[in-house]
From TrEMBL:
GO biological process, one term: L-methylmalonyl-CoA metabolic process
Encoding gene per record: mce
Annotated keywords: Isomerase, Metal-binding
EC number: 5.1.99.1
SUPFAM superfamilies attached to this UniProt entry: Glyoxalase/Bleomycin resistance protein/Dihydroxybiphenyl dioxygenase (SSF54593)
Family classification: Belongs to the methylmalonyl-CoA epimerase family.
UniProt source species: Sphingomonas liriopis
Protein name: Methylmalonyl-CoA epimerase
Cross-referenced NCBIfam families: metmalonyl_epim
Domain VOC: 5-134
Length: 139
């Protein structure tokens, strides 16, 4: 696989509304999207645009959320994952598995409407990595 652009940094938060205010008031964030629910991924989401990437605020959608355990350990929230673009997610998964990395589950449709998959943080030096397939030619 070939490592692509940093698409977003995922930030877990107990309150998207409060985090929006923090980024707006402390950092001057202006391009703040409308929060939306992504029940299939167990999260509520809000994107903040920066000049070269996005911050993805994620709040649990319900108790079964994949970020519930992270927030139990980090009640104030924190940096949760980084997302890199790849041209072909199935090729990336096959390559990672061949190299012995743990790929978490099957590809699913993420917040940008394209397939995503996660690599276990224990195989990535403690960083949860999301891979996101970009539309053909947009990589
Ligand atoms: C908005 C949609 C989408 C997008 O389009 O962008 C998203 O980004 S969705 C984001 C949320 N979804 C996910 O994170 C799915 C993938 N995650 C998982 O499968 C699990 O969260 C996990 C990574 C396997 C962790 O499992 P979990 O049961 O939640 O936690 P544990 O407490 O058992 O963790 C085991 C181990 O890993 C460490 N850990 C957990 N999360 C992270 C993290 N985000 N970054 C770094 N390390 C993490 C955790 O501390 C444990 O370590 P030890 O304590 O040393 O055992
Ligand atoms: Co993400």
């Amino acid at each position: 696989m070939t490592l692509g652009r940093l698409n977003h940094v995922g930030v877990a938060t107990p309150s998207i509304a409060k985090s929006i205010e923090t980024y707006r008031i402390l950092l001057g964030a202006a391009a703040i999207g409308e929060p939306f629910d992504l029940p299939a991924q167990g999260v509520k989401v809000c994107f903040i645009d920066t000049p070269n990437t996005q911050i993805e605020l994620i709040e649990p959608y319900d108790d079964a959320s994949p970020i519930a355990s992270f927030l139990a350990k980090n009640p104030a929230g924190g940096q949760h994952h980084v997302c890199f673009e790849v041209a072909d997610i199935h090729a990336a998964i096959a390559d990672l598995k061949a190299k012995g990395a743990r790929v978490l589950g099957e590809p699913r449709i993420g917040a940008h409407g394209t397939p995503i998959v996660f690599v276990h943080p224990k195989d990535m030096g403690g960083v949860l990595v999301e891979l996101m397939e970009t539309p053909h030619g947009d990589h």
